[in-house]
Amino acid sequence: MIKIAVCGALGKMGKEVCQAVTQCPETELTAMIDTASDSMYHSIEEAQRVEDIDVLVDFTQPSAIFENAKFCLNNGIKIVIGTTGLNDEQIKELENLSKEKNTGCFIAPNFSTGAVLMMMFAKLAGKYFDNAEIIEFHHNQKKDAPSGTAIKTANLMAEAKQDFTNGNCKEVETIQGSRGGTSYSNIHIHSVRMPGYIASQEVILGSSGQILTIRHDSMDRKCYMQGVLLAVKYVFKKNSFVYGLENIL
Predict the structure, then answer these.
(1) Residues identified as active-site
(2) 9 to each of 39, 89, 186, how far by Cα in Å?
(3) Helix or strand or coil: residue 74?
(4) Could you report the per-residue pLDDT of 187-218, keeping only the tens digit for each?
(5) Which CATH code, of 3.30.230.10, 3.30.565.10, 3.40.190.10, 3.30.360.10, is assigned to 113-218?
(6) What dotted CATH number matches 2-107+222-247?
(7) Which parts of the chain sit beneath pLDDT 70?
């Protein structure tokens, strides 16, 4: 039985993770961590003093995740990270710390198998198209932009091509930011925040005479739970660092 702690247990994703862990015959929910409730542990350190924790699943805030992850790795707790907002330098530091401490760390910008397939398809399609842009849509309570999924998608596509602005004219923004943010291989990312969305993303690829659009929509947070449990079971057995669910599908 894998002993699981959930950090951010009262959040929308945290509640789903707690339920999924409770219902899975291979996992046991040993600690719920959230600062918003006096009936729960308020920190990972507090929970660790009392409970046995094999793997911690973190769905908290961009401002908290880096320190949470470092604490886990420095104290022998394997971690599955669903919180987005880590930058490239922080991810590299966690990779190095994971290897140094021989403690598993699994970071996934998206735990939906459909979203991961969308990213893989976009990487494949990137070989055959000259231009590409990404539009991501999330609820208006999401604090970081662009989404981790959009960043990971662009990162994967950049492995296929060095520049996705082939033939573009010299641009002038009359309103700053109207062309979105420029990411890997000059892929523009546009972030939409609107009540009613959970998480959606479009990858638009173009070349002379044709457009290909690859889209994924999440309508229920339960769609992420299969991926979360896959990551938990993987990291429980391994001490390796993994960035992206596609690496274990």
Answers:
(1) 138, 142
(2) 12, 27, 37
(3) helix
(4) 999 999 999 999 999 999 999 999 999 999 99
(5) 3.30.360.10
(6) 3.40.50.720
(7) none
